[in-house]
Amino acid sequence: MIKRVTFASKSLPYLLLGPQLLILAVFFFWPAGKAIYESFFLSDPFGATQIFVGLENFQMLLVSPEYYDSILVTLVFSGLTTLAALLSGFVMAVFADRAIRGVLVFKSALIWPYAVAPAVAGALWIFLFHPTFGSVAGLLIALGVDWDPLLNGAHAMTLVVVAAAWKQISYNFVFFLAGLQAIPKSLIEAAAIDGAGPGKRLWYVVIPLLSPTTFFLIVINIVYAFFDTFGIIHAVTGGGPAGATNTLVFKVYTDGFENQDLGASSAQSVILMFIVIALTVLQFRYIERRVSYA
Amino acid sequence: MIERAHWFDRLTYGALIVGAILVCMPIYYAVIVASMPDGSESDAVYLLPGGHLFENLANAWNKEGLGRQLFNSGVMAVGVTVGKIAISLLSAFAITYFRFRFRMTAFWLIFITLMLPVEVRIVPTFEVAANALAPFQAIIDLLAIERVAGWLAGHEVDINLEWSLLDSYTGLILPLIASATATFLFRQFFLTVPEELCEAAKIDGAGPMRFFFRILLPMSTTSMAALAVILFIFGWNQYLWPLLITTEPEMTTVVIGVARTLPTEDADAQWNLTMATAILATLPPVAVVLLLQRWFVKGLVDAEK
Amino acid sequence: MRQWNLGAAGAAIVLAFSAGATQAQTDIQWWHAFSPDGKLGQTLVRYTEEFNASQSDYRIVPVHKGNYYETLNAAVAAYRAKKHPAIVQVVGRGAATMINSGAVYPVHQLMKDSGHDIDWSRFIGPVLSAFSDANGPAAMPFNTSTPILWYNVDAFEKAGVTGVPRTWDELGDAGRKLVKAGYECGITSAWQIWVHRDNYSFIQNQPIASQGNGMDGFDAEYVYNATRFVDHIKRVRGWVEEGIYTYTGRTWQGGHEAFYAEKCPIFLESSAGYGGISRNAKFRFAASFLPVEADNFYPRNSFLGGAALWVMKGHDPAVYKGTAAFFAFLASPEMQLDWHKNTGYVPISLDAYDLAQKEGYYKEFPHQEIAILSLSRSVPTVNTRGMRLGFGVQNTEILNEELENIWAGKKPVEKALDDAVQRSNANLRRFERTAGN
Prior knowledge:
- The complex is a heterotrimer.
- By secondary structure, chain A is mainly α.
- Chain A has one domain (64-290): MetI-like fold (Orthogonal Bundle), CATH 1.10.3720.10.
- Chain A is built from 14 helices and two strands.
- Chain A has helices at 12-38, 56-62, 65-98, 103-110, 112-115, 118-129, 135-142, 153-182, 185-193, 198-209, 211-227, 230-236, 248-258, 262-287; strands spanning 41-43, 50-52.
- Chain A has a two-stranded antiparallel ribbon with strand order 1-2.
- In chain A, helix 3 packs parallel to helix 8, helix 6 runs parallel beside helix 12 (230-236) and helix 9 packs antiparallel against helix 10 (198-209).
- The two termini of chain A are 13 Å apart.
- Chain B has helices at residues 6-34, 53-61, 66-97, 103-112, 122-130, 134-143, 145-153, 169-177, 181-192, 195-203, 208-219, 221-236, 240-245, 254-259, 271-293; one strand at residues 157-161.
- Chain B is flat, with a radius of gyration of 25 Å.
- Chain B has one domain (6-114, 179-296): MetI-like fold, CATH 1.10.3720.10.
- Chain B is mostly helical.
- Chain C folds into two domains: 24-145 and 305-364, Periplasmic binding protein-like II (D-Maltodextrin-Binding Protein, domain 2), CATH 3.40.190; 147-302 and 390-434, D-Maltodextrin-Binding Protein, domain 2, CATH 3.40.190.10.
- In chain C, the strands form four sheets. Chain C has a five-stranded mixed β-sheet.
- In chain C, strand 6 and strand 7 form a beta hairpin.
- Chains in contact: A-B, A-C, B-C.
- Chains A and B meet through helix 1, helix 3, helix 4, helix 5 and helix 6 of A and helix 1, helix 3, helix 4, helix 5 and helix 8 of B.
């Protein structure tokens, strides 16, 4: 996408892009390139031995059933987290947009989860939901729910999804609310005069007008669910039980960071890069077509 | 104006209150834990604070280095925010308002960086931070520039580029600036800016930079405020990166300070103190959010302007 | 040869002088994983302060680098960029990686080179052997613990459990009585792999892997799916079904909370859990040895946990002299005894143990002696010298996953353990290729 009206200059765009690209080159592409390089080697962590193994690191992943499990876990986790965070943010924004009083208080209350550091958030959720000492877990068990995220994969998945979505709700809320408030009231009133009820107005007027915001939030939320949640997973479930919450990025982190298997974790990073490039292309090529800018 | 049915108002406020309670419940619980006296049982369910909140907050505050840690986090968060907004505004402007040869290449180069957080490429990124000029050194080595220079100079030349970012604010900030979120957001915003504005500017004979500073930038304040919030919190909440690249206690950030109060192998946590520290560490970002909120009430994607 | 330094920020080209300024005091960095907010970290910092005050040539600078993995990674990343510390604390499972890394200056060599004559035979054998290469200890054991049986004395009395369970079957009986008396979760364990696989196998003299658990060669293979460990897991699986054993997570936090809250009166956990237990338990508690099988009249030494201090290559001789002096200081019986009393970790030298006995320390704190007795219970056999298996962390995770499958009833015991061994052996083969080259 580009503006219809543009400026003509040969050198200026490059100058404008310069600082960004320079920093990306040094701090992103160079290290990422090294990761790609490492993915063809088997090496000991301190770098004393490096054996070229070709595609073996990739092969090893692609024949391991655990890796496919992890892909599935990632899809379920990211899908649910994105959906939960977007929907709850949207619903609350729609209500907050209608409310006249107390919106500031509400907004101030909602913003806290977003500001809490992931490690602390994880500790908090454990505090509430650990089956042996969590307070809410105690309530659930007293109510007869057989709550055990330590051994029940579905429970564990629910817990990390809720914890991850929880941190992102306020972000989505703020953007949706901003988007909603930017919609000209005249348009909505016009629709109301034409006899459209609240539901219809939401569906035919508000949601299409929100599409740039929604598109932005979908991309950001998917990226968040994919990449920025392993701090929470680490603290809440540690990828367990039996790999039920072991997402791809969490696996990269444990294999590379805790297990010091640089080759395997680099190969996973490379696969991840391709997945995300594909996702991004998909998003920009297909979803963005349906977005109406101004 | 539109429906003001009584039941609908009630539903609205009811939903908001329930939503706020659900969302804030864990936070409220943190406050309760932070208000408990030492040695209270962690598995009991408390509904009301225990009356030791300020005592615990004071203890957390008086811990060695907390002030310094807060300051460092502040510098880091502001640095990341300002740096990222600056470079992103420029590149989003270039991508949306110019046609040039490598436009799509630049676009994709930037957007690929939406993924791969620092944590999964940590070892090579650390190597770069230990010597930010290493990539250039590698290029020099590859091109055998030393030998060429040596031949030109008539004696052996050894070029050593070194710029270590360890234990410095630059090192805390620069590597985190390398990502696309902000560029993406500004691009989204610029695409919604009416074409007429640019046309008018061109007719008035304004150059691109004049258009950028006089028209685009003032229009972007709401986006910038929204972004500033996100980036400030992003910078503030960094954990692994500051942990790795700082060794001086004077360079530690507050999230590390909080993490130190969490339980580790063979060491229990004093949960009341942990939560008190966490609350102190969360106050600055919350304050920033509340302060900046005024600016983006009017909307991020403001089509009416 | 002339050396040019192109300064940062494109400043001027500066002529670099390689001779560094001579410093009166040599700084020695020690990266560790004990939070300065906790008692362990505070004790550690106090030792460096005492050492620094005791002489003026060296200054030990302790730097907290997060948890064990964060510390190790910080050291790895720093080593690759040549900004590494002289001393780094590495968790026990990292020993295989460290010994084969080529980045380590072995401690026996360091002490010899620096003129410290250390009588290693006065150290607790199984502790040293876990970190030794062919010529002696490659690392300095620092925080050493072993799992023991913690129990709630009040609960035992209430449930009518008389005597401390000596065998695993007696432990099950005790658990049954406790649950009947209303203690909902019965028995639990922290660090299940360490307790149920490593220490069960050591005490029963069962191999975990071939080649003396990897101590004799990198071609070792896991064999625990064909030892008495399998029957042990079947028994525990039966307990889980019966409701007298509760899984409280892979680490220690859940178990501790369950023990404090008097839900699980029997807790298999590290001797170093003493700090938390003594602070939080509002009941009488005591400790004993981990149980054995009924037919085991010669229980072997248990397996240690914790971490050791490794010295990294690439520093000046002065740094190493100071490091050696610091290690000698740490190893002194007085320091070891202080460490033992303050942290619940075991002293690493027999002299420190003698000192504690002479003081009558164990009369007052009998459970503090259990770990030492347990670690030094026998002359180590080929199965109990230690464990040196690559990718230890990942292989632990694999077995954790499979044990979770067993507890949840998703896989039969044999199948799950076979799967774990198969997956882990693939890792060992991978490790073998980079190790020892």
